[in-house]
Design goal:
Radius of gyration of chain A: 26 Å
Shape of chain A: elongated
Oligomer: homodimer
Number of domains of chain A: 2
Distance between the termini of chain A: 58 Å
Strand order of the largest sheet of chain A: 5-4-3-2-1-14
Strand content of chain A: 15-25%
């Protein structure tokens, strides 16, 4: 049998548009003699739909489209469809894979394992279903599974998260093909994890594995496609691209003999991050109805990387850089920002904040002139925020926030100031990785795209004369690993200190993180690249005691 | 037996402070000859701790305090403790009630029903536990339950949410007392619901019921105490206050004979809302370490109500009103705002935004003067936001956002402008209810606290000459019920139209709500008064298609 698999990039809730994509791929697969066409998890709705799932009429409409539009396609030919969709039964909602055949819903495979941690909320919407059976597809006994269903192997994971493993039952019933419909978002290291775990399952159960993933970004989550096909020896036969839709074919005959060409495993690296930042930015704009993005260009490394990636993702003609010098901006910053804009070929304009700044100190200070306290540093950042939002409102630009994760973690940023905007592209990228991105962009571009001076100079917010980040913060090569241990690995300060960091530094960093939850509650959505990232991945109370460390 | 019950107001994560409260109440209960002392759900940690629960060392510290500090108190006397706490077993975490007796943890009652909807996330942290047993307390067979455990009665709820009901097993084993340790947040109608459901259980199982609730606000959630005691006839014997801690006593002898005085059931009303807005504001400031609050006084109804409640909650000497007239402010607004501030006895100051406004139009408009587009309306709001945040940063005020739920729902507010601040007191209170609050404040105060002119005049944002809310929005008496049906009841537009509302209006309102998720993602936390409220209660994607209605 020839199976066609569609790695989809759906827009959440856009049922009609997603249906059009699905029927388009189905037709194309028919033309290519497919005997079965498979789509991703919740393909019509898009993943994650969040509380759209609480609207019953929305779910009813999804089902109507499946019954009235999609299933009928299978009536006229012998090519069934397997598609991820919701299923309602007896006032319970399930996350299901439906087999559409001969014009109707022929069978259901209801998801057992519902992820509930990090960015996932499936227990909020769906009921677990334990009773699973295999599907015979053209004679081939198949374990039809939905995403998390395959991620609880007791031989692979030292501490399985769930108390049951649906694969055990399905393979006890004789499955020879593991088919997985996924919507699995990216984080650093995910490629390596998938490409180790999936061949492990192939060998353990002597089964072929087809792993079909969603692609494209939905809000914070970037789905990195990279669908995979393994033969029953665990040899990799196919990998989809990470950043676009893909319709690919698998001949089941090929799955049970040695591979002609084994594809080497992928180790995701800074190139993957760059690629997915582009995808995340492009999709966020497209799916919110924007074409153009604007950002403040400070002459620093963060805004340089954001500008370069945005220019690459949207086309330089759709990116506007705004230079907003204050009395404390240095000449080199302005020069560097202009050089960057010209290297990228993006539009730029300069709007000085002198006049509103002095207008404000005039009405806010007794002596009328700046007194250079922290409030005035924040004021400068907010005046820039005002200008960016004014451009957004008047000229319909999406504003890109340029701050990185290290800053956001320790509160080295101004609420409603440099934090203002629609998408925080780098808010889950630590500062050291921003440098890595800058070097990668120049190296892979084969020329100096980001001016070397921007990469070389010590980072500064330039909100008062001669300010440097390191006046307030530990050096980033010390800060970043502490943040990783505290945020991603949820280690205690004592354990971090035991890793060889100074007590004083660790306690200061943890205190800064804990005390700034109120800011992050109001931060723009950011693209997620780590486990337990700020936003959906880390949900912390604002009003609380801090004695826990 | 004499049972002491402590209706606690814990601060999330403040283990040491909460322990001090707990031991203090225990000592007091001993002095009053209690034979058992009961505390609320997760009493040491406070509810809801959210992702603090993902930090193992935090949970270990909670357990250490229980084992080393709390349990030993019970070694020297015959008075055990029942307290809500986490329990770790075999890499799983449970939400438990612990019985501490003779110096150690004598038994465990692990929560079965974990709420997963609306503002609740318990499936994210805890494992369900089905195997439950009764506890014999001084000879009395008792069903020791944790919060949600009692909310799935198949005779009371037409569609039970969970597939099991722990009460059935516990009462089959002969329980005569239902003891419930709760942390149950308020929403409108909750009093009526509790005071109907609990006596129903008493009568159904012929059991006495002691319902012990947490009190006080934690971020968005306001826990309204109102702990309740019913005898086995379902007669109400005791109700705790809704807005403060309470240590109360129940003599178990009294629970199985007719009540001497039956307390009439409570119907929560606008007075309850006023009381809990005060509590929510007071606790948010206290638990984030603030003493003083500031707000913009526009002369409108929303800021008037916020100012009145803040003055009542924090003391007028701790509230600062800031008048920030623009060229489009009317004289009556300034006069009304001053009259309000003087009625309340709060501090106030006037900072005109003319100069920064013209400084901005000078650098942003070719013609240098205002052109009165939407961007400039937002600009005015953001200049006011700048001033408020400047006051916050320089003078350590918590900024209260004054917008109401109706505005926030349909996006009639400016991001980083009037939406800027630390707590959005009224963001879950619809406009019509803001009027009701204003009238209540004047009536219950016995004088004109909020000037009648503020209540009478048609609402206006005053961001351009002669602007009125009704130029852009349906009248609030039509808007509010549509919002309630769409947001709280998750009804489809078709069903709302069928209730008698115009198609055009309903579709416009739904479109406005759907299109403004991006703004609410960056809104300040607000106090919750309805089911599925913005914030934790309603989690919607930003980037999405809108065809679902």
């Amino acid at each position: 049998m020839r199976i066609a698999l569609a790695q989809l990039n759906p827009t959440i809730g856009a049922l009609e548009d997603n249906l059009k994509k699905i029927t388009g791929y189905y037709q194309k697969a028919l033309e290519n003699q497919a005997g079965l066409v498979v789509f991703t998890e919740l393909a019509l709705i898009g993943y994650p739909p969040q509380d759209l799932l609480t609207y019953r009429h929305f779910l009813d409409k999804e089902r109507k489209l499946i019954v009235n539009e999609l299933a009928p396609l299978t009536a006229k030919n012998k090519t069934p469809i397997i598609i991820g969709a919701t299923h309602q039964d007896n006032d319970r909602l399930y996350n299901a894979a439906l087999l559409l055949e001969e014009g109707e819903i022929k069978s259901l495979h209801l998801k057992t394992l519902l992820p509930f941690f990090d960015v996932f909320d499936e227990e909020r919407y769906f009921t677990r279903h334990y009773d699973r059976d295999i599907e015979i597809l053209d004679g081939l006994p198949t374990a039809v599974t939905v995403c998390e269903d395959i991620w609880n192997d007791r031989d692979y994971f030292p501490v399985p998260i769930y108390d049951s493993d649906p694969l055990e039952g399905l393979f006890a019933r004789g499955a020879r093909l593991l088919l997985n419909l996924s919507a699995s978002p990216y984080h650093l290291g995910k490629h390596a994890l998938r490409e180790e775990m999936l061949p492990f399952l192939a060998r353990k159960y002597d089964t072929a594995v087809i792993y079909l993933n969603q692609v494209g970004a939905n809000d914070e989550l970037v789905f990195d496609g990279s669908s995979l096909v393994y033969n029953s020896r665990g040899e990799l036969l196919y990998r989809s691209p990470a950043d676009k839709e893909d319709l690919f074919y698998v001949d089941t005959d090929e799955l049970y003999k040695p591979a002609k060409n084994v594809i080497p495993p992928d180790r995701d690296d800074i190139g993957t991050v760059n690629q997915l930042l582009k995808l995340g930015t492009k999709d966020f704009l497209k799916k919110t109805g924007f074409e153009k993005a604007a950002l403040g260009l400070s002459g620093g490394i963060d805004s340089a990387v954001v500008a370069a990636i945005a220019a690459d993702a949207l086309g330089p003609e759709n990116v506007l850089g705004v230079l907003m010098p204050s009395p404390y901006s240095t000449d080199h910053s302005i020069k560097d920002a202009v050089a960057l804009a010209e290297n990228l070929g993006i539009k730029y304009r300069t709007i000085e904040i002198y006049e509103p700044y002095y207008a404000f100190t005039g009405i806010l200070n007794e002596e009328k002139t700046p007194i250079l306290d922290l409030a005035e540093e924040n004021l400068q950042a907010r005046l820039r925020g005002n200008i960016m939002m004014h451009i957004a409102n008047r000229e319909k630009y999406m504003i890109l926030v340029t701050g990185n994760k290290s800053e956001l973690a320790v509160s080295y940023c101004t609420l409603y100031g440099d934090m203002a905007g629609g998408l925080a592209m780098l808010s889950d990228i630590p500062k050291m990785k921003v440098y890595e991105l800058a070097r990668y962009i120049n190296e892979s571009g084969g020329k100096e795209i980001i001016p070397q001076n921007i990469i070389n100079k010590p980072p500064s917010a330039e909100l008062r004369p001669d300010q440097k980040d390191e006046d307030s913060l530990p050096p980033y090569h010390i800060l970043d690993p502490i943040l990783k241990m505290y945020l991603e690995e949820t280690l205690s300060p004592e354990k971090i200190i035991a890793e060889g960091y100074e007590r004083e530094t660790v306690e200061k960093v943890v205190r800064m993180v804990d005390a700034s939850e109120f800011k992050r509650k109001q931060a723009a959505p950011g693209l997620r690249f780590t486990p337990n990232s700020f936003g959906r991945g880390r949900r912390m109370p604002v009003a609380r005691g801090y004695q826990h460390w």
